[in-house]
From TrEMBL:
Classification via Pfam families: APH (PF01636)
One GO cellular component term noted in the UniProt record for this chain: mitochondrion
Protein name from the UniProt record: Protein kinase subdomain-containing protein
Keywords: Kinase, Transferase
Keyword ATP-binding: no
InterPro entries: Aminoglycoside_PTrfase, Kinase-like_dom_sf, Mito_inheritance_9
């Protein structure tokens, strides 16, 4: 640690570091706030072993930050010093950065007026417009050229918003650091991590990655999408997953999203929650910083774009892009119900405002967002989620592709498809797959009921604040028992449910 402190003091021209405060230690990084003898402040970040591949993760994060600051002029803390190799005086990879000024959006969001929140959304949409209009010629992560053992190329790095080819003597696209290629044990697999020349090579690598995961017996360890594996529920198997993936590989080149613009390889912040956005304390409607660009890679737009996380809420998404209304029976509601209705109204209004701003300033991003429900976009995304037991949904899409194959590939003069359909499902296959879809949907509904019973939420990892631990554990215990009393028909089924419910200890207790 002393060497790190000496480096930190040196890069800002101070004599020594006098105060060390650990800001956080998460799954991927340790972060320290360092104060020097003259009051100057920096942040030191050291990756944990699970952060990603040694050298590559840190080297790419630094290059991405510098590119975003230097080329795209994003408000991101400056990197003062870094090393992506552990064979240095510190003995570990590290990054020393400027301390992000301002306050987190999470600290002021609830106090902002409607116009101030609208201003925040306008700025976020503008940042997204810049990202979406910077189209890289390969798929992978961004690096300094000297950090990659690859020959120099004479092709452009990206195409800018004006359609100009941009060459770079500084940056290059290399292997991805996307979490989907490393989490849940994937980092130990010998799989293709790019870079990839085009979307078809990328999608093929994703499907083959999931096949390798299944063959290695890897499991999804977070909150499951549905309560599968339990009594009378959908029973996922490796064979079902492999069958769906192999069938997908037969047709994937023909069923890419029809809008080629959403195929473009772009950088994107996939976790833009309110603690990753900093605003000016004197004018909290002005964004002055965005942090946490670790693992960001250049990938197809449609596979990355989502509503910014700080707009997430529990409740229905408006069906139309227009003015949101309070419930017609609002005046007859209790005070508590009115408060909930107002909160939902405000969240839905911001959701629609984000989409309205996006469709005006960034129509391609809007098209990618709206395309999430289209078969071609879904069938290109689901293969990368096989560990979440979504193969019944993929099989349904594949059957739909088979049924509409002539419209996909076109019809020859003899009335036959220009390309014979490589998919073939027997009557028994179809019957089993349709039953699997029904059970899968049933499992998702059961999960929603379990969430209500326990006070949990979708995709929760089980992490709570220390002050909330006892209450959360009690809610989980009571909710689990309510669920078991309702769903288990006998003691045998009760024991079977306890083996598959999330957050159950080895003694059978939550």
């Amino acid at each position: 640690m002393s060497e790190l402190l000496n480096i930190a003091a040196g890069v800002v021209g101070s004599d020594s570091c006098t105060t060390i405060l650990k800001v956080s230690e998460g799954h991927y990084n340790k972060v320290f706030h360092l104060t020097m003898n003259d009051g100057r402040e920096v942040v030191a970040k050291l990756p944990n072993p699970k952060a990603g591949r040694p050298h590559f993760m840190m080297a790419s994060e630094v290059a991405t930050i510098v590119f975003l600051r230097k080329v795209l002029h994003f408000p991101i803390p400056k990197v003062y010093a870094w090393s992506s190799r552990s064979d240095n005086p510190v003995g570990a990879e590290y990054m020393i950065m400027e301390k992000q000024p301002g306050v987190m959006l999470s600290d002021v969001w609830t106090t902002l007026k409607g116009k101030q929140k609208a201003s925040i959304l306008q700025q976020v949409v503008e940042f997204e417009r810049i990202l979406a209009s910077t189209k890289f010629t390969k798929i992978g992560a961004l690096y300094y050229k000297e950090d990659l053992l690859t020959p120099k190329r004479n092709s452009p790095l990206y195409v800018d918003g004006s359609g100009n080819d941009v060459y770079s003597s500084e940056f290059e696209i290399g292997p991805t650091n996307h979490r989907s290629f490393f989490d849940f044990g994937k980092g130990d697999l010998d799989i293709d991590r790019g870079p990839w020349p085009n979307i078809t090579a990328y999608l093929e690598a994703i499907a083959n990655r999931e096949i390798a995961c299944i063959n290695a017996g890897l499991k999804y360890t977070l909150f499951p999408e549905g309560l599968f594996y339990g009594p009378r529920q959908y029973q996922p198997t490796a064979a079902k997953k492999l069958s769906a993936l192999n069938n997908y590989l037969k047709v994937f080149k023909y069923v890419l999203p029809e809008n080629n613009a959403v195929h473009e390889s772009v950088l994107w912040h996939g976790d833009l929650h309110s603690q990753n956005i900093f605003v000016d304390p004197e004018d909290p409607s002005r964004i002055i910083g965005m942090i946490d660009w670790q693992s960001v890679s250049a990938c197809p737009l449609f596979m990355q774009v989502t509503r910014p996380a700080f707009l997430d809420y529990n409740g229905p998404i408006p069906k139309e892009l227009g003015r949101v209304s309070l419930p017609p029976n609002f005046d007859s509601m209790s005070a508590e119900e009115q408060a909930e209705a107002k909160a939902l109204y405000q969240s839905q209004t911001l959701h629609n405002l984000y989409l309205a701003l996006t469709v005006r300033s960034n129509p391609t991003t809007f098209q990618a967002l709206q395309g999430h429900s289209t078969p071609h976009q879904q069938v290109s995304i689901l293969p990368g989620l096989m560990l979440t037991d979504c193969e019944p949904c993929l099989n349904s899409l594949l059957r739909e592709i088979k049924d509409t194959w002539p419209t996909i590939v076109g019809v020859a003069a003899d009335g036959k498809p220009r390309v014979p359909c490589p998919l073939d499902f027997s009557a028994a296959d179809v019957e089993q797959q349709e039953r699997d879809v029904e059970l899968w949907a049933q499992g998702v509904e059961l999960m929603n009921e379990f969430i209500k019973d326990t006070g949990a939420f979708k995709h929760w990892g089980g992490r709570v604040e220390p002050a909330d631990y006892d209450l959360s554990k009690q809610q989980l215990f009571e909710g689990t028992n309510r669920f078991l009393d309702r769903e288990a028909k006998n003691e045998e089924e009760r024991a079977a449910w306890l083996r598959v419910l999330p957050f159950i200890d080895s003694d059978g207790r939550p």
